[in-house]
Amino acid sequence: MDNLRKGFPVLKQYTYLNTAASGLLPEKVFEYRQDHDLDFLVSASILKEKQGEVLTEVRETVGGFFNCAPQRVALVPNFSYGFNTLLEGLEKPKKALLIKNDYPSINWPVESRNFECFYTEIDAYLEDNIRTALKAHQPDFFAFSIVQYINGVKLSIDFLKELKKEFPDTIFIADGTQFLGTEIFDFDSTGIDVVISSSYKWLNGGYGNGFILFNENIVGKIHPKHLGFGSLQGKYKAHEGNFIGKFEPGHQDTLNHGSLSVALKLLRDTGMENIEAQVNKLKDFAKEKFSELGLLEDFVVKRNEHSSIYNIKGDHELFKSLRKANIIISQRGEGIRVSFHFFNTVEEVEKLLDALKTRR
C-alpha cells in the first residue's frame, strides 16, 4: 500500500478524498515540469524545434494506454474545448439525447446550439431509461458522462458496448473525465465513437491537457472546422485535411501535454490492475458503510454498478467540520461528495466514518 502512496506529498498533510474535484500532482510530473521550463529558459526556440517529437510521443503514449491507434488520438487542452469543436463539426439540425443533470460542460454546449434535445432521468433504472429513450427518439448522437459528477452513478462499459450494437447509427460521445484512470479501459473494444477527457482528475495529469479518442468509423460523420498551421504539423497530421489536425489548430503546449505523458507512464508502472483492485476495494467498503449509516440515496444503494464517487447526506456545517479535521471533500448537489482513488486507504475511509458518526 505504501508504494501506491509514494510521490504524493499532499497525503502527508490531509485525508484527501477529493479526486473527483482535482487529482493530485505526482512528484514525477512536478519534476518533469521543472525540467521542461528550465530547458525553455535556457534554450528557447531550440526546445520548440523538438515539439513534434514530444507531441508524437504523448499521442503514442495516450493511444497505447487506452488501446487507440495514435492517428486517432487528438490532443486538446481540456474536455470542453474538444467537445465544442466536435459539436461544431456536426451538421444541424440534429437530434440529441442527454442525461438530465449531467455535467454542465456536456449539456450546456448541446443546448446552446440548434439541436433538438431529449433527456433521460438518473435513477435506479438509468440503463433502461437510456435504452427506452434511444428507441423512442432515434437521436443522431448521445452525449453522456460515463460517471456522473454529482453522485458517482456509473454506466458500465459492458452496457455501453451492448447499447452501441443495438443503436449503431447513433453517435456515442462519452465524457471520460470522471472515469479514466480508475480501471483498465480498452477503447477499441467498446465500440464507442468518441471519448473525450480532461486529465486533471483520476489521471493526475495536471491542468491544461486532455485528449480525444476516435473510433475509426467516425471520420466522415463529423466535419470539424478549426484549422491552423498546427493542424498539419507532426507525424500523424502531416497532410491537408487531416481529421485530428482540425482539433489541434494552434501551437500545442509541450509542458502540459508532456505532463500527461509522464502521468500515464506512472499509472502504467503502478499497474492499472493494481489501481483497479484498490479502487474497487475502497468503493465497495465505503458503499457498505455509507449504506449502513443511511447516507446514500436509495436508488444508489440498489444499483449494482457504481464508481468510487459518493454523495453523502450532509450540510455546510458538516462540510466545515470535515475540512477542519483536514478531510478534503466537496459540496455538490444537496450533499457532500467524497471520492476515493488508488492512493487512498481503508484507514482513511474509517477516519471519515468516525468523523461522520461524531457529528450524528
TrEMBL record:
Native species: Autumnicola edwardsiae
SUPFAM superfamilies assigned to the protein according to its UniProt record, in alphabetical order: PLP-dependent transferases
GO MF terms held by the record: transaminase activity
Domain Aminotransferase class V: 16-352
Lineage: Bacteria, Pseudomonadati, Bacteroidota, Flavobacteriia, Flavobacteriales
Keywords: Aminotransferase, Pyridoxal phosphate, Transferase
The keyword Transferase belongs to this UniProt entry's keyword annotation: yes
Gene3D superfamilies from the UniProt entry: Aspartate Aminotransferase, domain 1, Type I PLP-dependent aspartate aminotransferase-like (Major domain)
Protein name: Aminotransferase class V-fold PLP-dependent enzyme
Secretion signal span: none
